[in-house]
Amino acid sequence: MSDKPSAIIFGGLNTCSRALAQFLVPLDGEPLVKNLRIVDKYSVNPPTTYLGAEFPHVLKKPNVEYRQANLTVPATVKSCFDPPAGQDPFTYVFDLTGEIQWDRPEQVQISTTFQVAQHIGREAAARGVAAYVRIQHPFYECRERSGKEKEWAERDEAKPDGVLGTWWHETLRALAAIDGLNLVILRTAYVYGPYVDYGSIISWTITCAVYGYLKQPLKGLWSPGKQPTHTVHVTDVAAAMWACAHWMAERGRVKANEEAGEDISPALHGKDGQDVEGIIPAGTKVVAPLFNIEDDSKTTYLDLANTLVEYFGTTFEFHSFFTNTMAKFKLDDVVEEMNEQHVSTWTQMLEASNPPVTQMHLSQRAYMDVYALRKHSVAFPADKIKALLGYSLRRPAFGRETVAEMVDKFKQEGSWPRVAS
């Protein structure tokens, strides 16, 4: 253990941190790190967010520590870097902080995404950590002006999507500008996998389960469904973050920029946001190593829907031209009408489950919000991380088997209804 790094995971308990922690300190087998500290705003005992069935066992490992903390306070962030007495300083930092709800006010995005990451990044630079890996969710619109979809390599300037995307992207610029920070950015496709209960994939999965239960076809918007909806298994997110940390620790920021640096262009222009503390002026050039991570499926919206409905024993078709037209102008109304059936049927499934469902955290995912039903394109090819880091995907394809794995894990822990098909 003496030659292994020690690591801190900040944030992301409601996204990918649990999977990352279990990758670093597996339930069975040799840990990859000497010591692991996990820091987030949630309580784990008693839990104030969903933890999954396996993560609590990770927390019981002797080299794992969980700390509940308010990361909006710089002094608190600073104290989180102090190792326990007799332990070596932390050498790897994994930053998964940030607000992921699209409907939060801009000031919430600024304080909990933009400013929190800067507190952590500045302290990491001051401590001289060997690697600082920042996750970037796919809060971008991968469409060309002509309306055609394309794949977006790291060098391409995908447009941040809304207030959420803007401040997540500006966070990258702010981190990239911190002197001495050994920053690597990992940008993901749509994440799915065991115990992943956030994001679009789980909402679509529940919706397909509802229509399978009703024995009715699922109807989707946005025919013909060719837009890229690329996916990545949560295990590959964790493994890629670890690979990025090793890669950075071996070379440092200057060499890493030379090998993999990309211009992080501003999302804000003119006077927008220029009064926010820590904002990097639009005219300032910043560069940081950036890698995409996605699987090899090259999934489209139609592919995803067909895979899910096939698993749940139903079919997929598109709404009428009239409904599609209505959705373009009154999506809120269309969403409410859809959700009346989704939510009520999911509730019926929970009540009919044998054995009973004991955890209700997925109920909120039965409600598909406006953001989830808008037409999105997500396509971030992983060619660069494969070529430069030699990264090999652990779960290269999204398909029936991976859907079964996800649903079966939820069933085993008592959060997915067992109902007659």
From TrEMBL:
- InterPro entries per the record? Epimerase_deHydtase, Lipid_A_modif_metabolic_enz, NAD(P)-bd_dom_sf
Query: What Pfam family is a match, any one?
Result: Epimerase
Please give the Gene3D superfamilies that the UniProt record associates with this protein: NAD(P)-binding Rossmann-like Domain
| Stretches assigned to the NAD-dependent epimerase/dehydratase domain | 170-246
Question: What is the protein named?
Answer: NAD-dependent epimerase/dehydratase domain-containing protein
Organism annotation? Ceriporiopsis subvermispora (strain B) (White-rot fungus)
